[in-house]
Amino acid sequence: MSKAALIVVDVQRDFCEGGALAAADTLSLLEPLQDCIEAARRAGAVIVFTQDWHPTNHSSFRTNGGPWPVHCEANSGGAQLMAPLRADEEDVTIHKGVSADGAGYSGFEATGLSEKLTSLGVTHLAVSGIATEYCVRATALDGLKAGFTAVVLTDMIRAVQPSETANVLAELAKRGVKAATAAEWLKSLRPN
User: Fold this and answer.
1) Among this protein's residues, is 135 annotated catalytic?
2) What CATH number is associated with residue 137?
3) For 154-170, what is each residue's pLDDT tens digit?
């Protein structure tokens, strides 16, 4: 029987209000996303948390010539999941961007996530989290490339520039990634 996975992308302290590289309006995401995770868990979905987990010499940091402020250094407070989110023992946690080079935007980039999901019988993905135009986008597209059906949960994502959300969702739709609300997706998990 095919399974679904809910991928929770980078809901980490540094990407939330007050963090080093905060997306917009992230605090309003936390409780509804936690509710969605719990509902997906009850419905039998695999829960995946991705976290940027960068070394201090990561190429994306301005201090190393990259475009971003220092963020989500491995084992730092800024790299931790934002409460109330927490990974349970049976959940899959993926650390990405762990080598000095490479953007590390996608949860599938050099992480073994595709193989792990396949081994668990997963065939379709729902992608949520931060930031819509970077890591959410890249994870959804790479999930599709890896052969999974992918949907982005439109009410469970936050962008750095909210004005870009419609453009990103339009691009994803053109490339085959569907869009749905969390409620619509959760309803699809229930047997008829």
Assistant:
1) yes
2) 3.40.50.850
3) 999 999 999 999 999 99
Query: How far is 27 from 158, CA to CA, in rounded Å?
Result: 10
Q: In this structure, which amino acid lies at residue 10?
A: D
Considering 3, 10, 116, 142, which one is annotated as catalytic? 10
Cβ neighbours, 10 Å, residue 189: 17
Give the count of domains, the chain.
1
In contact, 84 and 31? CB cutoff 8 Å: yes
Does residue 3 have an active-site annotation?
no
Instruction: List all residues 6 or more positions away from 46 whose beta carbon is below 8 Å from its beta carbon.
Output: 3, 4, 5, 6, 91, 92, 117, 120, 122
Structure tokens at 173: 């739709």
**What crossing angle do the helices spanning 27-42 and 182-189 adopt, rounded to 10°?**
10
pLDDT tens-digit profile of 31-56?
A: 999 999 999 999 999 999 999 999 99
Catalytic, 10? Answer: yes
Say whether pTM exceeds 0.90: yes
